[in-house]
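Sharing a chain and its predicted structure for anyone who wants a worked example. Both blocks are below, sequence first, tokens second.
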Amino acid sequence: MVTASQRFLSLDVFRGLTVAAMILVNNPGSWEYVYPPLEHAKWHGCTPTDLVFPFFLFAVGNAMSFAMKKYAEAGNAAVIRKILTRTLMIFGIGLLLNWFPFVKWDDGHLVMKPLSSLRILGVFPRIALCYGAAAFIVHYLKDRGAFVAACVILLAYWFVLIAFGTGDPYSLEGYAGLPLDKLILGENHMYRGEGVPFDPEGILSTFPAICNVIFGYLAGKFIQEKGKTYEMLARLMIMGCLLIFAALCWDMVFPINKKIWTSSYVLYTVGIALLLISILMYIVEFRGQTRWTTFFTVFGKNPLFIYVLSGVVVKLYLLIRPVPGQNMYSWLYQSVFQPIGGNMVGSFLFALFHVCAFAAIGYWMDKKKIYVRV
């Protein structure tokens, strides 16, 4: 991703805020003790945590609106090559992260993690697929065509769920994407967080997620074209409110749901993203209040690298056993943070500590002018 220029520092802040939030919600000291806003909705509905991933995809689209201008100067063949290369690299990183650290504990011994149970999809693979699809759509269909394509995808997804779902098409059991994932991916390569093979980053639900990137791209283009004006700010806020209203109306017949990434969920999260960016732009760009932004911009300047690093560290925690039968993750929580704040506060402090630790790493990288591009 390409970092937005300092003229739009607020976009860096938005991206960094999203990465920091991803680390916060992914790393509680104990999953038994998590404040409700930091948990995903059980099924229908949307918590603050459910906003984080679509915000990241929206930020990918923002960044893409700056990068595509450079791509256009390189010629069609070069554009295709760049998009495919970046897509495959991000997808490959996701697969490696899913497999990492390549070994696991089994009956007191370290054994290789079998490829036969490797999860194929997930957060990074979805980022890759959504970026690649959105980039090609924008490249070939241009701005208006991309907007129309996004609308068609959202409506077509609704139709597919109704036409091919069984029973309640918006339930786990009736969801049309579940048999598709089992057929193409295989149950052994799917997520089992619901207690059964079900991938919240599955094949079918990736299609509406592409629209989060497209809308992020269109918002980025609009901001660049209108510049730092109150007209731009007002139109962003109005569009955000309209999308939230439309999503809440659609929710009555097509529930807002992250796990199957419903079309109403796309509109809802894009609307909130537009409002949040509007607020950030007013504070940062219009009022010039930038002192507080450094903490978030250091995440925004190396977003994928810092997120990958956070995943690597946590997986290493689970591998290391400072005492027999207890991994580093639980030992650190129970020995350091739980005594300080108890169960709930200690669990939150554990997550907040890691956000600050990765912010420090990002700050050091920024000072050294180290920016890892994918």
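Comments welcome. The first strand starts at residue 103 and ends at 106.
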